[in-house]
Design goal:
Elements: H1 24-60
C-alpha cells in the first residue's frame, strides 16, 4: 500500500497505519515469501511437464509393445 497507493491518497490519510512504510524486517519477509512462491511454482511446472513427457514417450514410443 505504501508504494502504490499512498501517493494517490489524500494527505490527511497518510498517517494511517495502512499507508505507513513497512519496516526492513517486513520487506525482507515479503521478499523471502515471494522467492518461496516462485520456487514452488517452478517445481510444480517441472513436475507437470515431467509427467506429460513420460506419457507422451510411452504413447508415441514404437519400441514399447513390439513383438
Amino acid at each position: 500500500m505504501f508504494l502504490r497507493y499512498r501517493p494517490t491518497v489524500p494527505p490527511e490519510y497518510h498517517d494511517n497505519e495502512i499507508y505507513a512504510e513497512p519496516t526492513a524486517e517486513q520487506w525482507s519477509k515479503v521478499k523471502v515469501e515471494k522467492a518461496d512462491r516462485s520456487d514452488f511454482h517452478r517445481a510444480q511446472r517441472e513436475k507437470k511437464y515431467a509427467v506429460k513427457e513420460a506419457i507422451e514417450k510411452h504413447a508415441f514410443d514404437d519400441n514399447i509393445g513390439a513383438i
